[in-house]
Amino acid sequence: MNLQSTKKLANGILMPRLGLGVYKMTDRDETLQAITTAIDLGYRAIDTAALYYNEEEVGEAIRNASVKREELFVTTKVWNSDQGYDNTLRAFETSLKKLDMDYVDLYLTHWPVEGKFVDTYRAIERLYEEKLIRVPGVSNHHEHHLQQVLASCNVAPMVNQVELQPYLNQAELRAFCQEHQIAVTAWSPLGRGHVLNDETITRIAADYGVTPAQVILRWHIQNDVLVIPKSVTPSRIKENSEVFHFELTEATMQEINALNRNERFGQSPDSFKFDF
What we know:
Helix content: 25-40%
Strand content: 15-25%
Distance between the termini: 40 Å
Number of strands: 10
CATH class: Alpha Beta
CATH superfamily: NADP-dependent oxidoreductase domain
CATH architecture: Alpha-Beta Barrel
């Protein structure tokens, strides 16, 4: 495996296993530089969202990139206040204009807004049928949310992006997704930095001669989880990409799996509340 390694999704589309997340990148120049650095290093996936207010910068960086648009995999998401069938279609149109693209590779429901998320996904299905997106998906969906979507959809979600890190390994949800051919992407794969100082992780990192971040990202990849670590620091972007020259043993994988404590550093899909 290498930085261009992909996972084949349910419809045959290939999605990069490691990409750049751009959450909280609000400074224009910093955002452009981070994306350019990542692409030049070999990253082929960029993950944004309407909420991040940087779709325009993502589009600009990709237009000026050293590789063609079709070589890149771009994800964006519909925010909670824009959910519902008609609103989602309008929100997508806005995102597409900001990105200045003809299509988006992956479009996600950002959070399962009660009473709306099923209709939101119906709109995503329509965008998929109209070939405006290459892959339909969701984010922050528990199993019971997915079951509601699966009960009414014609085309099942092919990706579910959730908080996933060693203290929250989502084993049951991952098993459910695997059963239904739904790829899992980890947002905040490093636990917002909280897991980097874990004694087990730091010991393993020393044993393998790599950094704690590299250990965690490699653990994700060997668990068949797609990852989108975010950073604006060129050295960190490079470090995060260098996880293909070593392999964790099965014993090491089990050690990290055992760190699970169902601890979230973000909000829960069953009780999320945002004041923006």
